Amino acid sequence: MTLDLLQFYELLDPTKPLAVENPEEKQYYIDFSPVRGSNIIKDLRDKITFFSRGKPTCQLFTGHIGCGKSTELLGLKAELEQAGYHLVYFESSQYLEMGDVDVTDILLAIARRVSESLNRIEIAEPKGLKAILRGAAKLLQTELELSAQASVPGIGKIEANTEGEFSADVGIPGIGQVTASDKEGVSLVALGIGKITAKAKDSPDLRNKLREYLEPRTKGIIDAINQELLIPAQDSLKQQGKKGLVVLVDNLDRVETVKKPWGRTQPEYLFVDRAEQLRQLNCHVVYTIPLGLIFSNDYGRLTERFGVDPKVLPMVPVRSRDGGVCEQGMMLLRQMVLVRAFPEVETQQRLTLISKIFDQPETLDRLCYVSGGHVRELLRLLNEWIEQERQIPLSREGLENAIRSRRNQMKLAIDDREWNLLRQVQQRKQVSGDEGYQLLIRSRFVYEYRDQQGSWFDINPILLQAPEFQG
After folding, report:
1. What are the pLDDT digits (tens) for 336-390?
2. Which residue has the higher pLDDT, 337 or 118?
3. What pLDDT, on a 0 to 100 scale, did the predictor assign at position 126?
C-alpha cells in the first residue's frame, strides 16, 4: 500500500477543522471523549434536545485554542441537524475585529447569519430591525458610500441608497429587470448588516461612531432580533417539521485580552458585564469563550449571570497525573495520524502500516507525546516535519529538528518569572487565578487535563528539554 505524501500533508492542515457532517471528512474523526473525562458534546446536545423543554438555552464552551473545539462544534451541528433542528454555525472571527469587540457587534453578527440561513423561509418584514439599520446607514452614509452597488450571488446587483434602504436589481432572461424592494424579506437585512459591519470592522473610527449610535439601542436591537427574526423564524421552522433554531458562535474564545478604556479586559466586559444581554436571544445559543475566564476572579459572576458552568474541552492526555504514560490517550493520537493516511483500513491493521510513514513506531510515539495531546500542535509539528524532509518514511532526526525549532520560538516569549511559574505547575499540577498563570495558559505553555479526580495541569512537553526548565 503506497501513500501519497502531498495528499497526506493536505489532510493534516492544522488550520482546518474537520467538517464531520461531511461523510468524506467524518471518516478522519477520532472520538477523544473516553480520555477527556466526559462527552462534552453529548452534554451540550442533551441540554438542547432533552432538558430545555422547549425553552431557549444559552451555553458556554471553552478550551485551549487549537484543542479541537471547532471540530467538536461541527460534530454537534451534525447531531442536532439529524435530530431535526435548524443550525446556524459561524466563525465570529470572520465578522468581528477580535481586538475590539462589543456586544452589539456579536448580536448583529448573529442576526446576519440567521437571516442568511433563512432565505427559503417567509416571515414578515422586520421593520424595527431595518429602522435601526437605516439609522446606522444614514449616520455613516458618507463613509459607507451607500449609493455603491454590490453583487450578491443568486440575487444580482444590490443598491443601498442614502436613506439606508436596500434594493435588489435582478436580471431574468426573457423578462428583463425585476426590482425587489427592501420589503422583500430578511435577505436584504442580512445584506445591510453585512455592508455596515464590514466597513466598521476595517476602521476603528467607524466602529466607535457606529457603537455610539447602537449602544443606547441595545435593548431595542435584542427585542427586534427576537420579535421580528428569531421567534417568527422558529414558528416557520416548526411548521416545516423542525424542532427549533440553534446558533453556534465559534471563535469568540479568540477575543483578545486587551483592556477597555475603563479598565476591564475585553473578555470580562463581554461575558461578565454584558452576559445578561448575550443570553437574552430567543433561541438556543452556544458561545465559545476564552479559557482564561475560568481562572478569573469574576468566574462566579459569569456562571451566575449565564446560569450555567462553561463546558471545558481539555487536552488529550499523553501521561497521567502521576507522570506515567496514558496509553489510551496515546493510542487515540496514533490513530488520529494514521487514519489521515489510511482511512479505509481497519483500526488495528493501521498499526502495521506505521513504517509506511515513519522510520519506526517510536518516532510516531515521540510525536504524539511531545504534542501534549494538543491536536493542532501535533498536526502543526507533523506539517513542518514533512515540509523539511519532503519524503517518507519520516525520520526521527527530522522530528527532533522540528521540536527544537518550535521550542526555540516558545522560549523567546518566556521570562524568568514565568519559568518559575512553570516549575511550580509541574510540581503541583495545579493553576491558580494569578494573572501570570492565565498568561501561561493562553500562551499554551501549560495544558489542562481531566481525569476521575477532576482537572490537573502540566507544562507543554515541548518545553521539557529546555535548559532553563531543567535547571
Report:
1. 999 999 999 999 999 999 999 999 999 999 999 999 999 999 999 999 999 999 9
2. 337
3. 84
Computed over every residue of the chain, the mean pLDDT equals: 86
How many degrees, rounded to 5, is the angle at CA 12 between CA 311 and CA 291? 20
Closest to 75 in 3D by CA, of 9, 25, 114: 25
DSSP 8-state secondary structure symbol assigned to residue 287: E
Tens digit of pLDDT for each residue in 304-319? 999 999 999 999 999 9
Q: Residue 59: is its pLDDT beyond 90?
A: yes
CA distances from 366 to 145, 358, 373, 382 (A): 57, 11, 12, 11
Q: In what order do the strands lie in the sheet with 284-288?
A: 86-91, 245-250, 284-288, 58-63, 311-313
How many CA atoms within 13 Å lie on the side-chain side of 72? Answer: 27
Q: How far is CA 153 from CA 147, 166, 287, 292, 370, in A?
A: 19, 16, 29, 40, 46
Is the separation of the CB atoms in 126 and 189 below 8 Å? yes
385: alpha, beta or left? (left if phi > 0; alpha if psi -120 to 50): alpha
Tell me whether the omega of the peptide bond preceding residue 393 falls within 30 degrees of 0, making it cis. yes
Q: Cα torsion for 368, 371, 376, 381, to the nearest 10°?
A: -80
CB atoms within 10 A of CB 93: 15
Extract the C-alpha cell encoding 353: 502500516
pLDDT at 437 over 80: no
| Separation of alpha carbons 47 and 42, rounded Å | 9
End-to-end alpha carbon distance in the chain:
47
In degrees, rounded to 5, the angle at the alpha carbon of residue 460 between the alpha carbons of residues 455 and 463 is 150
Residue 459: closest CA among 329, 369, 367, 372: 372
Note whether 125 and 186 are within 8 A (CB). no
Helix or strand (DSSP H, E) at 68: none
Closest C-alpha among 252, 315, 217, 265 to residue 59: 252
Q: What is the pLDDT of residue 187?
A: 63
- For residues 313 and 72, the answer to whether their CB atoms sit within 8 Å is yes
